Amino acid sequence: MRVTLTVNGRRHQADDVWEGESLLYVLRERLGLPGSKNACEQGECGSCTVRLDDVPVCSCLVAAGQAQDRDVVTVEGLADPGTGLAPVQQAFLDAGAVQCGFCTPGLLVATDDLLRHCPQPTDADIREALSGNLCRCTGYEKILDAVRLAAARSGETAGER
Amino acid sequence: MREFAYQRAGDVAGAVAAFAAAPGARYLGGGTNLVDLMKSGVESPERLIDVRGLGLDAVEEDADGGLRIGATVTNSDLAAHPGVRRRYPALAQAVLAGASGQLRNAATVGGNLLQRVRCGYFTDVTLPCNRRVPGSGCPAVDGEHHNHAVLGWSEHCVAVHPSDLGVALAAFDAVVSYETGAGPGELAYAALYPPVGDTPHRETSLPPGALITAVSLPAAPVAARSRYRKVRERASYAFATASVAAALEVRDGVVHDVRLAFGAVASRPWRAHAAERALTGAPATARAFGAAADAELAAARPLPHNGYKVPLLRNLMVSVLTELAEEAAR
């Protein structure tokens, strides 16, 4: 089947897609966007998190046909190429929240969504919002630091306006 | 994963007709359970009929105080709906206690009702399971069952229903609306899941091919003061080891109206009728709450490795009702 969808603002078309492919597979293997990671393949780990019609989902559990005509934002779409890394990406780097990096794209999409809806989250907010993203390296403390840092920086920016 | 066809239905009648024409079909909502089970081979439908585009994605507030929830409303939208939060706070709390944000954003109400059990023997196709392969046996009875049923089970299946949402629906007398080729129908949520008996593979009482279109909640003023509490092995994103949905109205220190349902203790969300009967007209005290819990749990038959659930459930129920009573007294 043919699947047509918008990814990071651009219209894409994939042909000869097998019904059993996931949105994650289409993104990685057909559209050349390998940022979203394929880890558990069962919606447990959040490594494949993308925004689908503006809400984060596990793209490994979205059948390819379900993505037809929908709007997807992947980790590749977080940064504006003109201005460099997105603030959440910079905060993850600065806080040392990246070790092996496999969970990072999903965490970035989830964190970006949290801060859109809740610019100054409590630690409880952060823990709940990221509970669908597993990391086997960091122990999460640096990830929490990164989210707090991103929130603090966006608060400073807002204060300067 | 086996070969299958995918189609989007344009309207409810079209979806039902497509299902009738394809005996091995499944309706597809968010896919968070079905697509997962297709990967592991537990489900192998010949056709998926995607029903997300049928316009069943609204929550409507009845003038009399009830709610009608469309079958494809996502869990996230349901939990965020102001009418749900105001009229049935336990319902919103239950939804938010389930899964992760990513899954709640995709999962639908209809799919939540029809999700399959999370028993490890059910999800492993190399092992026997009466629910998956009738007559093959239930290894959980003598096996890994610390999180399985203490109420209403049979030796043919001891798995628990995994839904949090369903526990609140059970407490508030929800009604399931569906469509079939022969026309629409309704079924009390309490009757949606038949007793396990010797037919655990018969998971719902819906007619063959029925498409759930909505879940309705009748007006219940008591539900405005309600709570869902879930105990699990970590603070978030885990299935319950036990949960309670409770609503309480106290007048002059006496229980005037009470609703109670338990989760993760039976093959269906467990409405605690015996506890409700024991409490109605009783003093709103911890002692009476405990006696009511004992009345309900007298029927409990724990397995060798899940006896902890009985006192856990008792304490959970007493604690939630005590909190609700204290808040009512303020």
From TrEMBL, chain A:
Q: What GO terms are given for molecular function?
A: 2 iron, 2 sulfur cluster binding; metal ion binding; oxidoreductase activity
The highest taxon in the source lineage is: Bacteria
Q: Which UniProt keywords apply?
A: 2Fe-2S, Iron, Iron-sulfur, Metal-binding, Oxidoreductase
Annotated signal sequence range: none
Domain (2Fe-2S ferredoxin-type) ranges: 1-78
What InterPro entries does the entry give? 2Fe-2S-bd, 2Fe-2S-bd_dom_sf, 2Fe-2S_ferredoxin-like_sf, 2Fe-2S_ferredoxin-type, 2Fe2S_fd_BS, Beta-grasp_dom_sf, Diverse_Oxidoreductases
The family database entries (Pfam families) matched by this protein are listed as: Fer2, Fer2_2
Q: Does the keyword Iron apply?
A: yes
Q: What is this protein called?
A: (2Fe-2S)-binding protein
Automatic annotation (TrEMBL), chain B:
**Organism of provenance:** Streptantibioticus silvisoli
Question: Which UniProt keyword terms apply here?
Answer: Oxidoreductase
Which InterPro entries does the entry link to? CO_DH_flav_C, CO_DH_flav_C_dom_sf, Diverse_Substr_Oxidored, FAD-bd_PCMH, FAD-bd_PCMH-like_sf, FAD-bd_PCMH_sub1, FAD-bd_PCMH_sub2, Mopterin_DH_FAD-bd
Q: Which PROSITE patterns match?
A: FAD_PCMH
- Which chain positions lie within coiled-coil regions? none
SMART domains assigned: CO_deh_flav_C
Q: Where is the FAD-binding PCMH-type domain?
A: 1-222
Could you tell me what this protein is called? Xanthine dehydrogenase family protein subunit M
Tell me the Pfam families matching this sequence. CO_deh_flav_C, FAD_binding_5
